[in-house]
Amino acid sequence: MHRRIRMGFLVLGCFLAMVTGCATPSGPLAVLPMTSPAAAHHNLEGIQQYDAGKWQAAKSRFESAIQADPDLAEAHFNLALTFHKLGSHREATIHFKKASELAPANKEIVGSPAYRNHLGLSSTLEKHLSGGYRY
Each residue of 32-72: pLDDT tens digit? Predict the structure, then answer.
């Protein structure tokens, strides 16, 4: 009996490790300053503000990055994350969509739980594990 219980916990632990280990982190994404140094600089400043919990300042910096390079998918993604933190889910969804249109092969963007939740792509298990909902 105890062996079956231990085996059950082992299977459950492996399953949870597999599911959470495959999840993509939902933090802001940095970029190299190769094509647009100004956009990369604003994006990095936005990440610093985001990490400090200064959502309005982060929003402003990510918007500046997008103004410097409208095709910078990471800045759109980061702005979407910031709108999510601010509770502006309609705006977040718009920028998540734009980020995925600009970089459909970027797994950090399209695999993000926040992205998947906003676009209604999350499974019930993903929603439960991430605490996310469809916006």
Answer: 677 789 999 999 999 999 999 999 999 999 999 999 999 99
Q: Measuring CA to CA, how many Å separate 66 from each of 19, 61, 85, 116?
A: 33, 9, 19, 22
Instruction: For 86-109, write each residue's pLDDT tens digit.
Output: 999 899 999 999 999 999 999 999
80 contact partners, CB below 8 Å, separation of at least 6: 91, 92, 93, 94, 95, 96, 99, 114, 115, 118
d(CA 49, CA 74): 15
> Dihedral of CA 41/45/51/54: which sign?
negative
CATH class of 2-130: mainly alpha
C-alpha–C-alpha distance, residues 46 and 51, integer Å: 9
